[in-house]
Design brief:
Layout: H1 3-8, H2 29-44, E1 47-51, H3 58-68, E2 75-79, H4 86-96, H5 105-122, E3 127-131, H6 139-148, E4 159-165, H7 168-173, H8 179-183, E5 185-190, H9 196-209, H10 221-229, H11 233-249, H12 257-269
Parallel strand pairs: 1-4, 1-5, 2-3, 3-4
Helix pairs in contact: 2-3, 4-5, 10-11, 10-12, 11-12
């Protein structure tokens, strides 16, 4: 167990994303807005675009939503390796659907569409396909995604497609070559980050979930924390994790401003 866990009597590391259960997610406005839109998108089986700068909690929200679904009613596929060729993308898609990839793109295309229709019509278990880091997808993949969604003379949507990436994904989709795909987008949400009030609530929430008292936060520390994080949950987690380690090493009963600033300086030099 880490030194900070023992010293501050944490049940777990409050600021380690690997130890955070989906049920303990902090309900920020971004998180709630994303979950609500994903739920609606799942019901209408359309295309959704979710964008944010790095570290704003987009992928965690996707994870929470996927975990909440009944796997008897929904087939969920998450793909984060986006820098691949069109052919390799088709192979990945086939593998994710449990298909032996046939030879050649046309055969893989037909196999995928048949499988998607089977999941929707026969098994009553429509696919939710999440493509993370979608700003890295090639124009060819984006073009073919539109065609894969075209069923029965474009009168039927058999699955839900989520494109998640950094904000410049929107600029990519605005290019004329992607006009047909863009017209099919029914949901778009851009993460704005934590407000100052949410940043304070976020820190206290994570400490509380780990069994720690709010008194661990010394007087005047929250403005310093807010100023460093600038609304980014990942920066906030990194800062607080480092501060807890330094505080334990220095045997500080609470994290004062000096500890927070030392943690910020340590991260800047890392």
């Amino acid at each position: 167990m880490a030194m900070s866990h023992l010293y501050y009597n944490f049940s777990r590391n409050p600021f380690d994303k690997q130890s955070l259960a989906e049920k303990d997610a902090f309900p920020s406005n971004d998180h709630k807005q994303a979950i609500g839109r994903l739920s609606y998108l799942k019901d209408i089986r359309g295309i959704g675009v979710f964008t944010s700068p790095p570290g704003f909690g987009k992928t965690f929200a996707l994870r929470c939503f996927a975990k909440s679904l009944d796997r008897n009613l929904h087939e969920v596929v998450y793909v984060a390796l986006s820098t691949v060729s069109l052919t390799e993308f088709y192979r990945q898609f086939c593998a994710a659907l449990g298909l032996d990839a046939p030879h050649g793109k046309p055969a893989m295309f037909r196999a995928i569409q048949d499988r998607l229709f089977h999941l929707f019509k026969e098994k009553k278990k429509p696919l939710l396909l999440i493509l993370d880091e979608a700003h890295e997808l090639s124009p060819a993949i984006l073009k073919d995604l539109k065609m894969i969604m075209n069923h029965d003379f474009d009168s039927l949507c058999c699955f839900t497609l989520v494109l998640a990436g950094e904000p410049h994904l929107c600029r990519i989709l605005e290019k004329p070559v992607h006009e047909a795909l863009r017209q099919r987008i029914t949901i778009h949400y851009g993460f704005s980050g934590l407000s100052d009030a949410e940043t304070e609530q976020y820190v206290k929430h994570k400490l509380r979930v780990a069994g720690a008292a709010e008194s661990i936060l010394g007087e005047g520390t929250l403005p310093a924390i807010i100023g460093y994080a600038r609304g980014c949950p990942r920066l906030l987690d990194n800062l607080m994790n480092e501060a807890c380690l330094l505080g334990a090493q220095l045997e500080k009963p609470s994290l004062n401003t000096d500890v927070i600033m030392a943690a910020a300086n340590s991260l800047a030099l890392a």
